Amino acid sequence: MRSRSTLALMGLLIASLVHAENFTEANTDRAKALIDAAVAAHGGDAMMEDLRTLVVKTRTVNYSVDQSRGTEAPWDTSINDSVDVIDIENSVFVNHAKGTGGGFENHNRTIINGEESYQLDYRAGTVAGIAEPDFATTSGPFVRVTPALLIRTLKEREANAHFLGETRIDGTDYNVVGFSMTVGPAISLYLEKGTNLLRRSERVFPGFGLVEYRFDDYETRNEVPYNRSFTLYLNGDVNLEREIKSLSVNVPIEDYLAVPEKFVAIPEVQPDPLSRQELSEGVWLIGGNGTYAMFVDMGDYIFAAGGTAGIPDRIDSLREVVGDKPLRYGMMTHHHFDHVLGVPAYEEEGATVIAATDHERIVRRAAASGETLDIQLVDDKFVLENDARRVEIVDIGPTAHTEHLLVAWLPEEGILFEADHFAMPAAGPVPPAVTSTKTFAKALEKQGFKVKLIASAHSAKPGTPEDLARALQTEEFQARR
Ligand SMILES: [Zn+2]
Questions:
Q1: Neighbours of ion ligand 1 (CB under 5 A)
Q2: What percent of the chain has pLDDT over 90?
């Protein structure tokens, strides 16, 4: 009896193993056949072997979904002009970008070229070396939106590719193949049946959502089809539209690798581990890796300002100096998604979350339990005061970045905490002020704050009024020459 059931079980196991093997093999074979067809459709040898360099100039319109000045559509748009340069054989990549948006102006170039790798800031006129240049990570975003390069990468990595299925969208039939690049989440590629051209791709970011790319118009150059535009959808909404202004194949790229003369060398960007600074007695700026929050000891409780990434770690660090004193308030500076990530952490502490009245919906949406979230809404001003301390929470908006901006102002200490308007660089001179900084400075003047120190959600280094004045006075590098 026992041996019979064991045999039956073994038989079942063998059957399922055989089935699994066949299934895997069949799937891998199907994926490989589809990849070969896609390679042929995207230029075959001309793409796999003859393609050496690409220089692509683009104009991108970005729709700032949930990152606009207001909390609802229509969203603010920003425009970015870019040049991407890749030398596949030598693992060289350059991105030169100039744009405006969210009250910021940017003009930068990143050069990944082995030991000659640099980060250039054209507004400040500074150049910093890149200690650990990473070709795959830096070129990844360009490769993902350039079908010829994406299909090449797919072919190179076909060992980890899978056939995911067939689907029909808006009357077009697709085979879908999934694979992973060296960095980032898995990508699903939608290959149009018949032409075998890449028409769509998608990736899922946990906690963020679905990112889709669509490639609708191909033009053949040097036997390889290149897209003339693409659209990026974020959770179904248009987030980015890019037009390819020009594309050059197998041209020399040396000109893009040179650092322009008169640029001032500044130290390399260093790793920024979690740290805690005491700005004044009982006032700490805690953070690392580009995000910081301020904590104020109010005597019998703690007030916190800032909702960026990593709030639980920052609270752990705070506990080392304040023990289990209750964290009673957590202030959200504004509604942008990277500034409400901390809501659940404050919620778990049992804290009241302070937010601008206009931002209530977004803050509740960011909470683990939005309906029951304890929230204190602020119209103009909300004051916390006792024998130990006075903290004023003031809406200093509108600015060029957001309609409402809550800052935490400690009048006794002269310390102000803000987000996204004035972040000191880790090294080098204070760069010329962007529009966001200019409107922030005007708002401070209007409030009459006698500020000694400006702590920011995105800088480890608090700025002084002299730093702010210097930023406002400094002309852009090009204008200085
Ligand atoms: Zn923001």
A1: 336, 420
A2: 87
Provide CB contacts within 8 A for 46, sequence distance 6+: 222, 223, 224
Q: Could you tell me the CATH number of the domain that includes residue 412? A: 3.60.15.10
d(CA 276, CA 293): 10
Residue range(s) defining the domain that contains residue 471: 275-480
Centre of ligand 1 from the C-alpha of residue 256, in Å: 32
| Segment 102-144, tens digit of pLDDT | 999 999 999 999 999 999 999 999 999 998 999 999 999 999 9
CA of 370 to the centre of ligand 1 (A): 21
pLDDT exceeds cutoff 80 at 337: yes
Final residue belonging to a domain, choices 266, 286, 317: 266
Convert the pLDDT of each residue in 202-218 to its tens digit.
999 877 789 999 998 99
Kindly give the distance from the C-alpha atom of residue 403 to the centroid of ligand 1, in angstroms, as a whole number: 10
Task: Say whether both 433 and 466 belong to one domain.
Answer: yes
Taking the CA atoms of 261, 266, 267 and 272 in sequence, report the sign of the dihedral they define: negative
In angstroms, rounded to a whole number, what is the distance separating the alpha carbons of residues 217 and 224?
Answer: 13
**pLDDT in the model for residue 23:** 82
Residues 6+ apart with CB under 8 A from 81: 57, 58, 59, 60, 97, 98, 99
Q: What are phi and psi of 152, to 5 degrees?
A: -60, -50
Tell whether the model's pLDDT for residue 5 goes beyond 80.
no
Residues 216, 218, 221: CA angle, nearest 5 degrees: 165
The answer on pLDDT for 3 being more than 70 is no
Among 266, 283, 315, where does a domain finish?
A: 266
